[in-house]
Design a protein that fits this description.
The chain is built from 10 helices and no strands. It is mainly α. Helix 3 runs antiparallel to helix 5 and helix 3 packs across helix 6. The chain starts with a helix and ends in a 7-residue tail after the last helix. Bound molecules: protoporphyrin IX containing FE. This is peroxidase.
Length: 227
């Protein structure tokens, strides 16, 4: 699951290098992120909100505690939300946009949930530090907190992502997000830059969360056989 996080960040920003073991993957991921200690436009930084929203992490953690206590399945939803946001046009919160043709209209986003919780956290942050924090910089830390809350490591993630100014089409989501029927060779090529071990381990994210029968029934039974 931790590896997933890495992949996410990978797909959203820069590349990552190696590891298979979960924690190593995450660590690699983090190391692959641009380390900038000054705040420059279009660059991520570990102290991006040091002056503009110093309590960002505390606010997010406080808000999430309430969400997690009310809904123990929420961490899985947040982790997948990050993957699906970052995989399509980068980590730009475009998955929060709604229109008849936006990426949420793609069948690949079936089962995506908890978007409203991101909006709620955004509202709280607008009171704390108006106009400072992008929704993209909420989705990623929320996934990070979801990983640690469910027993994973505490990951340091640089911030400074910008929200999208365009609405990606559902066609882009169709092209970039894998279907549940994806064959092994295709999902290995999907995670470019990762080894086979990393590609497989990242799917360990699915030890967390829920799925619908219709997405796996085709792998369980031969549709031509009826008993
Ligand atoms: C080949 C790549 C992948 C495929 C084909 C895939 C497919 C799926 C499918 C079909 C579901 C169930 C949706 C439902 O029935 O409601 C699901 C759920 C989930 N996926 Fe993936 N996924 C992939 C990669 C990833 C990655 C890289 C991550 C995280 C980094 C991830 C995290 C999750 C999580 C946490 C859930 C549970 C969501 C929930 O409980 O709401 N997946 N995925």
């Amino acid at each position: 699951m931790l590896q997933l996080l890495a992949v996410l960040i990978l797909s959203c920003r820069r590349k990552m290098e190696r590891p298979f073991p979960l924690i190593l993957l995450i660590a690699t991921l983090v190391m692959a992120m641009p380390l900038s200690f000054g705040v420059e436009e279009n660059q991520l930084s570990y102290n991006y909100y040091m002056f503009s929203c110093p309590n960002l992490e505390t606010v997010i953690q406080k808000e999430l505690l309430r969400v997690f206590l009310l809904n123990p399945t929420a961490p899985a939803a947040f982790l997948r939300l990050m993957f699906h946001d970052c995989q399509v046009q980068g980590c730009d919160a475009s998955i929060l946009l709604d229109s008849e043709t936006s990426e949420m209209a793609s069948s690949r986003n079936f089962g995506i949930r908890m978007r409203e919780a991101i909006s709620n956290i955004k509202s709280t942050l607008e009171e704390e530090c108006p106009g400072q924090v992008s929704c993209a910089d909420i989705i990623v830390p929320v996934a990070k907190e979801s990983v640690s809350y469910t027993g994973g490591p505490q990951i340091q993630i640089p911030l400074g992502r910008k929200d999208t100014k365009t609405t990606p089409s559902f066609k882009e989501a169709d092209a970039k997000l894998p279907p549940p029927s994806i064959p092994v060779d295709e999902f290995i090529s999907l995670f470019k830059g990762m080894s086979i071990e990393e590609s497989v381990s990242i799917l360990g994210a699915h030890t967390l969360g829920v799925g619908h029968c219709l997405n796996i029934v085709g792998r369980l039974y031969d549709p031509t056989q009826r008993t």
